[in-house]
Amino acid sequence: MKRRLAAVVPALAAVAMAVPLALSTPASAAASCGRTASDMDSSSWDRTANGANQRSGSSTGCAILGIAYNTHNLDYHCYTRIGNTSETWTYLRNDTTGTTGWVRDDLLNDGGSLHYCGF
Fold first, then answer.
1. N or C: which end of the chain has fewer CB within 10 A?
2. Which 3 state secondary structure label does DSSP give 13?
3. What's this model's pTM, rounded to 2 decimal places?
């Protein structure tokens, strides 16, 4: 009996260690690096961010294309959500610089676009 238990315990320990690793895998970005979005948000007015990075996708791992400051005018196109989290990103055009890119919504003064990109 002890031999059987001795053989089972290491296997159970390996499974127990693997489960938290599988559960802690981060959600994938909804807009992969390089993905753009059409302008679904037809409104255009002063929207600002205070030094927010505009990125090529909805992830801090994507390249920075520009920076949106509180003196810039931003034209929102749409937003996307990251996996099953509450984190959202807005695709926008910085009218001041002409740069387009993704900005995390909590960095925008009004929380970002209200129009869902569909991905």
1. N
2. helix
3. 0.73
